[in-house]
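Why should sequence recovery work at all? Because a backbone constrains its sequence more than one might expect. Tight turns favour small or flexible residues, buried strands favour hydrophobic ones, and helices have their own preferences. The token representation captures these environments compactly. In the example below, the structure is given first.
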């Protein structure tokens, strides 16, 4: 993949904002460890075939999405949501991000994290030398709550089994819970995100790392350094053989 000088400058500027002290040309720094026995993915920019995935994982996710349908299981379908926002990315990803719920842009496009917070999430992913297409991104619930309020307990209880199915199909090595709500919902805790972040939790066969939501970083850019520390931990786990 060729990067022009302006793109490189922008990448390094953002990495510096996240607290990166330097860069490395070591290929091991850029490449997450693969699962034992898994076929390596081929990236389009390598000049070879496009990225391909196991039909089993992709088809299993498609089956879950088909089962959800035009969901009417909770009250959100009566409160103005436009469409289901299921999830997007690599169905065999080593790294998965989980937010709380779709926002307005996501509700329109049907894709999680596509607004300003989503653009920042993409930069965060690229800061550890991954592409957005290499990870999987989803939310605790699949429908936008009115006025972007927090999901209510009955909505979470109804919808989170679909997230569990996504996790169990994808089998990520690392899950990043984005923001207080996602972390609290997944970990069944009311502890503040400031106490949860920086720690590693075992979760459905993966390592779960809570961190601040990108939308929070837009309002509090001084917290980017903490997120960079969390992402260095993510990178370390992806590189580990355990």
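From this structural description, the recovered sequence reads:
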């Amino acid at each position: 993949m060729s990067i022009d000088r302006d793109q490189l400058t922008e990448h390094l500027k953002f990495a510096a904002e996240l607290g990166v002290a330097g860069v490395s040309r070591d290929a091991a720094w850029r490449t997450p460890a693969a699962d034992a026995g898994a076929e390596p993915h081929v990236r389009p920019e390598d000049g070879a075939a496009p990225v391909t995935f196991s039909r089993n994982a992709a088809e299993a996710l498609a089956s879950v999405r088909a089962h959800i349908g035009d969901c009417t299981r909770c009250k959100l379908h009566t409160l103005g949501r436009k469409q289901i926002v299921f999830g997007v990315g690599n169905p065999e990803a080593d790294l998965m991000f989980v937010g709380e719920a779709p926002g307005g842009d996501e509700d329109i496009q049907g894709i999680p994290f596509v607004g300003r917070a989503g653009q920042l999430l993409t930069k965060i992913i690229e800061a550890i030398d991954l592409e957005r297409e290499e990870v999987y991104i989803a939310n605790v619930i699949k429908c936008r709550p009115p006025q972007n309020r927090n999901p209510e307990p009955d909505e979470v209880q109804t919808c989170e089994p679909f997230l569990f199915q996504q996790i169990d199909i994808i089998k990520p090595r690392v899950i990043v819970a984005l923001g207080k709500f996602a972390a609290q919902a997944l970990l069944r805790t009311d502890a503040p995100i400031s106490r949860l972040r920086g720690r590693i939790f075992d979760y459905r066969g993966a390592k779960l790392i809570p961190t601040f939501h990108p939308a929070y970083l837009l309002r509090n850019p001084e917290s980017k350094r903490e997120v960079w520390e969390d992402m260095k931990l993510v990178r370390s786990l992806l590189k580990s053989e355990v």
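A few observations help interpret the result. The mean pLDDT is 84.
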